[in-house]
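Re-run with default settings, no changes from the original entry. Doing this only to confirm the output is reproducible before filing.
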Amino acid sequence: MAEIINPSPNYPIVNDLGQSNKEFTLWLQQITGLQILSGSGAPENTVSAAQKSLYMNTAGSAGSILYIKRDASIGGDTKKGWILV
């Protein structure tokens, strides 16, 4: 994952037309990708995500709660590649 650089405080986040500036839009996309996905049950074969994503199993017990997306895809399937951590 690329380094996340905060947008400059010297520029507005939106222009006169109400559109977000490119620097702010890029920053927002980067930090949004850092959120932890969650759901009930293991994510393998059900949750599509980018490599390095985190997933929390809300129905899990000790030892089966947190997963990381190790592989971008397996056989082209982005719902595969999760490992329990």
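Strands lie at 37-39, 54-57, 66-69, 82-84. The first strand starts at residue 37 and ends at 39.
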